[in-house]
Design brief:
The protein is α+β, with helices and mostly antiparallel strands. The chain has three domains: about 1-35; about 60-100 and about 125-240, no CATH class; about 245-310. Helices cover about 60% and strands about 10% of the residues. It is built from nine helices and five strands; from the N terminus they run ααααααααβββββα. It has helices at about 1-20, 25-50, 60-100, 105-125, 130-145, 165-175, 180-205, 210-240, 305-310, and strands at about 245-250, 260-265, 270-280, 285-290, 300-305. A three-stranded antiparallel β-sheet has the order 2-3-4, with no helix packed on it. Helix 3 (about 60-100) packs across helix 7 (about 180-205). It starts with a helix and ends in a 9-residue tail after the last helix. Keywords: Membrane, Transmembrane, Transmembrane helix.
């Protein structure tokens, strides 16, 4: 026991030394990963809003956005685990209690029967790459029917209304609380984890048909990569910075009248982009305007509005198209 303890301690020590010696490389790789997903989230966020920007290749906001996405995703993991645990217990607990009430001899026979059926089930799914094909079908459905839908949203700040289809996407954007959006991303995360589980299980238990199994695993791995890329894209379009600061002070520039409204949408390297909402003949008309930074230094933030709920809810004032 003492030797095993020393071996374990030596392994931990070697692992720590290896991590310390390659710390700089790991930090650079992780920062690059956050940078890429931050760029994806921010770029698709601005595309959905319809904002033309002066985004540069090097911008610290990519890294900050990547960190926000990672924190948002990690914060969903406890909720996902709790949901899985509750669902599992609600199904397994009654079955287990019923199983314990059975006579001991019958339980042994039932256990042996279950073990044989489980082995047959595994063998059937692994034969002819059935499990890999199931994973491909599942991943395709998640991508096409769910994750891809948000990419179709664009130029929303100047749109007359949100798209009517799919109805669930409109509901997510106009929901009164964050609960539906949280459940949506928990479902996305669960779908990605399910696809990843199938992928790595098929890698570990590949069939003897090397060429065919290699192609199916490659296709499943590619689709899993698409899912992973679409996670920050969905985050950028549906979650990122949807509460925008309502500002005063543009009336002094002759841009707005005192009763008009303005929101700061984006602060670029050379200017700031505002959403303007002007009264015209009893209706409201929206437009986007970019002003030089030097002209907008004296602004007053008077509040924050969830912009989609404010513009597209049923209680929003009538606007011109």
């Amino acid at each position: 026991m003492e030797v095993k303890g020393e071996d374990l301690w030596a392994a931990i020590n070697r692992g720590t030394q290896n991590l310390a010696s390659h710390w700089a490389s790991y930090t650079v790789l992780f920062s690059f990963f956050l940078y890429v997903i931050g760029y994806l989230a921010l770029r698709f966020h601005l595309t959905a809003l319809g904002v033309g920007t002066d985004l540069s290749v090097i911008d610290e906001r990519y890294l900050f956005t990547g960190n926000k996405f990672l924190i948002y995703l990690v914060s969903l993991v406890p909720s996902l685990l709790l949901l899985i645990l509750v669902s599992f217990l609600s199904v397994v607990a009654p079955i287990y209690l019923l199983y314990r009430l059975l006579p001991r001899g019958f339980r042994v026979k039932l256990g042996n029967f279950y073990q044989r059926q489980w082995q047959n089930f595994q063998s059937w799914w692994l034969a002819s790459n059935r499990l890999a094909w199931l994973g491909i079908l599942f991943t395709l459905l998640i991508i096409q029917l769910v994750m891809r839908q948000s990419i179709l949203l664009s130029n929303l700040l100047l749109a007359g209304d949100l798209p009517a289809e799919p109805l669930w996407l409109r509901y997510l954007l106009l929901a009164k609380t964050d609960g539906p959006m949280t459940l949506y991303f928990i479902s996305l995360l669960g779908g990605v984890l399910a696809s990843a589980s199938i992928f790595f299980y098929t890698l570990r238990n590949s069939s003897n048909q090397m060429i065919r199994s290699g192609i199916t695993r490659l296709l499943l791995g590619f689709l899993l990569g698409v899912q992973l890329l679409l996670l920050p894209v969905n985050y950028g379009i549906l979650v990122l910075d949807k509460s925008m600061p309502r500002v005063n002070g543009l009336d002094t520039l002759g841009v707005l009248k005192p009763d008009d409204q303005a929101w700061l949408v984006w602060e670029g390297n050379e200017g700031k982009t505002f959403l303007l909402r002007k009264q015209q003949g009893g209706n409201y008309k929206r437009s986007l305007m970019t002003l030089p930074k030097n002209d907008t230094q004296r602004m007053e933030i008077t509040g924050y509005d969830h912009i989609f709920k404010f513009l597209f809810s049923s209680t929003s004032p009538k606007e011109e198209g």
